[in-house]
Design a protein that fits this description.
This protein is α+β, with helices and mostly antiparallel strands. 21% of the residues lie in helices and 40% in strands.
């Protein structure tokens, strides 16, 4: 799966909450087993109170070719707020802004060079899972890496899960009640439930090991919120070291620069 994340705003830059987001495959293709993708396959989701959304877009993880999609946003009354062609390459994650850039470039002669250039620049990382068994502990260390992105948190019983950048922050935050206040050193805080044992981050949470002697083992607190004991927590992550993380961001900026130069060149040719 490829995670597509973004924020929906109106013309005044105000986040739109409760909007329906739909991504529809616009062509057919083959997966690695030779099965046919059917055009018009769609996935839908909804924006949160701040207008953010996160979708797992099928079928990129098995695709032999990168896929164009139709991205649509619907208001509370079903009216179309936005409709645009986007392009999703076979990466673990992509932002809506990036997918729009690639979608716009489909109408230019340089789309293939642009996309191949980006693929060569970006490290080909895949999403990984890290599972830890609690064994009665509420404070554990999980190998999330020196720098990481968390896409989902899953527990085998309803739990409050907190991830920290330092051991000191984890120790000081032990008795804090559930509030909207995020103390220094807290990377993320989520709560799973019986109905939602797997919490998908929206937006994706980014963190790093900021301990005095970093080792990639990240402090995590897991507290049961019901009488049922929590024995296991699993993180779905994109694992990067610091230099790789910087290269990803630099590569994305280079993509934007390449696209802007391409558009400018096309404009000069027209004039």
């Amino acid at each position: 799966m490829t995670y597509l994340t973004g924020q929906i705003k109106d013309a005044t830059e105000t986040p739109i909450s409760g909007a329906t987001v739909r991504v529809t495959l616009t062509n057919s293709g083959l997966d690695s087993a030779g099965s046919v993708y059917i055009e018009d396959s769609a996935v839908t989701g909804m924006t949160d109170s701040l207008g953010f959304f996160s979708l797992q877009v099928w079928p990129n993880s098995e695709s032999l070719i990168d896929a164009p999609y139709r991205f649509e946003v619907f208001g509370e009354n079903g009216e179309i707020v936005e409709s645009q062609l986007i392009y999703i390459p076979n990466f673990p994650s992509i932002t809506l802004a990036e997918a729009k850039y690639l979608g716009e470039s489909l109408n230019t002669s340089g789309v293939h060079d642009l996309l191949e250039n980006w693929k060569n620049l970006l490290p080909q990382y895949k999403l990984a899972q890290r599972t830890v068994t609690l064994e009665g502990r509420d404070l554990v260390r999980v190998p999330l890496g020196m720098a990481y992105e968390v896409y989902a948190v899953e527990t085998d019983a309803p739990a409050r899960v907190r991830v920290y950048s330092t051991s000191e922050a984890a120790l000081q935050d032990g008795g804090r009640p559930v509030t909207s206040y995020y103390p220094s050193g807290l990377v993320l805080e989520v709560q799973t439930s019986q109905d939602t044992p797997r919490f998908t981050m929206n937006p994706v949470a980014r963190g790093a090991d900021l301990k005095k002697v970093p080792d990639g083992m990240i402090p995590v607190r897991v507290d049961a919120v019901t009488a049922q004991q929590v024995t296991r927590v699993t993180f779905t992550i994109l694992l990067l070291d610091g230099s790789d993380y910087q290269r990803v961001n630099d590569s994305r900026q280079e993509l934007y620069s390449d696209y802007d130069r391409l558009i400018m060149a096309m404009g000069e040719e027209v004039n």
